[in-house]
């Protein structure tokens, strides 16, 4: 994989950068990313699960040759997991040692010891703090993944960090980044993220790809599936996304499905293997029940009819 270390200086260059990481982006995404990088603003990516949001940050880090620092969000995420925490165990040992050697005597002894155990040496740095540290490879890519899983107080805290890229640790002082990290925030939109935070960022809605783009993605990510199979998979999935399902298949699922079918030596979709492999595509029993059998046949017939119509038109 080619390494491009400097930030891209045009939308074209941004497209090239993403392509180098086997990421198929449309023009609007490349533009949003380019502007976010150029203006030093966080990129806020929202969209359904499995549409390629997290991958953008990974590709960015890899192709720019930067460290990737990932903060995976979850309910109850707090400062001690996201920013820093004191290494209590080591602090205790230090204090015991000082007691044993008699270094804690008097006011000055105690003050020195307090200064000592609340120094950087006893600090456990978590992702947000790590992202502010200078690195030889340049500012890292900070991925704040699935922000919608956290709660609002954490969001408010994050807003503060993102506005001036500094974190105050009462016992030590202010940690600030000379050169701020490249920030990518993702949300699966299980709840709305506050406007104030979105306002700090470049916002981009990552949609399901159209057929052409999805075909290109499969060409890169599931080349073991033959061309005819890849076309079938994409056509089927594109139709499936129009059905009212509990959870629509994302790009992740189409890649999985194409790979699974290739493993079974399938060259083109047919009902038996289709029904047998629905579990790579749909992750809820109700959805599988709904599609398996006649509905799957209906969609398959539809794509066969459309394919032959296209052939007639094309010839
Ligand atoms: N545009 C794309 N180009 C290449 N691969 C993609 C693209 N979109 C999604 N993928 C692939 O789909 C999978 C899921 O992507 P991911 O970033 O984890 O989704 P999300 O974070 O939106 O849930 C990954 O394996 C990724 O490589
Ligand atoms: Mg993700």
CATH topology of the largest domain: Rossmann fold
Major beta sheet, strand line-up: 2-5-8-1-9
Number of domains: 3
**Number of helices, where a helix is a run of at least 4 consecutive DSSP H or I residues:** 15
Proper CATH architecture of the largest domain: 3-Layer(aba) Sandwich
Q: Identify low-pLDDT runs.
A: none
Q: Structural class given helices, strands, pairing?
A: alpha/beta
Number of strands: 9
Largest sheet: 5 strands, parallel
Q: For this structure, what is the CATH class of the largest domain?
A: Alpha Beta
Order of helices and strands: HHEHEHEHHEHEHEEEHEHHHHHH
What is the CATH superfamily of the largest domain?
Answer: P-loop containing nucleotide triphosphate hydrolases
Please tell me the overall pLDDT: 93
| Helix content range | 40-55%
* Radius of gyration from CA coordinates: 25 Å
What this model shows, in words?
With 315 residues, this protein is α/β, with parallel strands linked by helices. It has three domains: 144 residues, Rossmann fold (3-Layer(aba) Sandwich), CATH 3.40.50.300; 39 residues; 104 residues. 50% of the residues lie in helices and 12% in strands. The protein contains 15 helices and nine strands. The strands form three sheets. A five-stranded parallel beta sheet has the order 2-5-8-1-9. A two-stranded antiparallel ribbon has the order 3-4. Strands 6-7 form a two-stranded antiparallel ribbon. Strand 6 and strand 7 form a beta hairpin. Helix 1 crosses helix 2, helix 10 crosses helix 11 and helix 10 packs across helix 12. The two termini are 39 Å apart. The relative contact order is 0.12. The model has no long low-confidence stretch (mean pLDDT 93). Adenosine-5'-diphosphate binds next to helix 3, helix 10 and helix 12.
């Amino acid at each position: 994989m080619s390494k491009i270390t400097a930030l891209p200086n045009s939308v074209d260059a941004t497209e090239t950068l993403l392509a180098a990481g086997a990421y198929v982006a449309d023009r609007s995404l490349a533009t949003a990313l380019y502007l976010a990088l150029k203006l030093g603003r966080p990129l806020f990516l929202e969209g359904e699960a499995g549409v390629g949001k997290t991958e953008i940050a990974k590709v960015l880090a890899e192709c720019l040759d930067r460290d990737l620092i990932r903060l995976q969000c979850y309910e109850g995420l707090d400062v001690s997991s996201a920013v820093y925490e004191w290494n209590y165990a080591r602090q205790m040992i230090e204090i015991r040692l000082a007691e044993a050697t008699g270094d804690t005597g008097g006011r000055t002894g105690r003050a020195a010891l307090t200064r000592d155990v609340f120094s950087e040496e006893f600090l456990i740095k978590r992702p947000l703090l790590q992202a502010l540290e200078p690195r030889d490879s340049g500012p890292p890519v900070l991925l704040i993944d699935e922000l919608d899983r956290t709660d609002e107080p954490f969001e408010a805290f994050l807003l503060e960090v993102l506005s001036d890229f500094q974190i105050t640790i009462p016992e030590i002082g202010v940690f600030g980044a000379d050169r701020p990290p490249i920030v990518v925030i993702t949300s699966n939109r299980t709840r709305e993220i506050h406007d104030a935070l979105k306002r700090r960022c470049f916002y981009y809605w990552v949609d399901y790809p159209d057929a052409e783009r999805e075909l290109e993605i499969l060409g890169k990510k599931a080349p073991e599936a033959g061309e005819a199979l890849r076309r079938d998979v994409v056509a089927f999935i594109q139709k499936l996304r129009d059905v009212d399902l509990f959870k629509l298949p994302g790009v992740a699922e189409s890649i999985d499905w194409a790979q699974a079918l290739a493993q079974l030596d399938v060259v083109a979709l047919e009902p038996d293997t289709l029904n047998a492999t629905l579990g790579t595509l749909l992750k809820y029993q109700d959805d599988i029940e709904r599609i398996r059998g006649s509905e799957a046949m209906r969609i398959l017939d539809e794509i066969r009819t459309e394919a032959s119509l296209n052939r007639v038109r094309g010839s």
